[in-house]
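Page 42, continued from yesterday. The earlier attempt failed because a stray header line got pasted into the input along with the sequence. Redoing it now with the clean sequence only.
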Amino acid sequence: MRPYLVIAALAAATSTLQTNHIDDSDRDYLVAHLEMTRQIIVDATRGLTKAQWLYSPGQARWSIAQCVDHLANSERFVLEMVQTRLVKSDRPIEPFPSLAPSMPSAAAAPERLPRAADALLIRAMTDRTDAVRVPVTSRPPIEEVAPRSEIADPQTALVAFLETRSALIAYAQTTQDDLRGHFTYTRLPGYYPDFQLQDGYQWLLRMSAHTERHFMQINEVKAASSYPRVQP
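This time it went through. C-alpha cells are written below.
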C-alpha cells in the first residue's frame, strides 16, 4: 500500500475510534425512557379539574400545573443548551448561566464517563429525600427553568410539555452529535460524588428521570389533605 494511503487509512481509523456518537442500544434506551415518562405525565394529569391543577399544598409549594410547566421549561432549555452550547464547546461548560459565578475551575474532560454514571444519574434525580426534608425557601428553583408563578390555563403547561418532549424525542432518535464527548459540570450530590461532569447523552436522560421526580411531586400534591376532591 502506498504511504499516503496508509496514512489516510490510519487517520480514518483513528477518527472512527474517537467518535462518541451514541450507539443503538443507548439511543433505544433513551427514546423508550422518554416515551415512558411522557406517558406517566399524561396519565397523572388526565381528567384533572382546574382547581386540582392549580391547587398548591403550601406557601412556595408548586401546584401540579407548575410542576408540568417546570418540566416544559427545563426540556426547552436543556435541548437548546445541548444543541447550541454543549456540543460546540471543547471544555466542560456551566449549563445554567445564572449559576456561572459558582462554576468550578476548568477540569480535563475524560474520553467518556463510565456507564455506571448513567444509572447513578437516574438514581440521583429520582431521589426526593432532600426535596422533602429541606425547606422550600432554602432551595429556590434555577432561574432558567422556573415555572410561571401564575398559570391561568393549566392546559397550556401540558401542551408545552408535550411539544418540548416530542422535540426531545425527535432529537434523540436522529442526532449524530457527539453527545458522549462533550460535558457540563454537574450538581448532583449524594449519588454523584465521583462524577463531577455530565455528558450530553446524560442530559437527555436526565430530563426523563427529572420527569419521574416531578411525577412523585405530583402524587405528593394529590395526597395533601386539602387537595380538592371530586365528589362522586
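Notes: The chain has one domain: 21-223.
Reminder to self: strip header lines before submitting.
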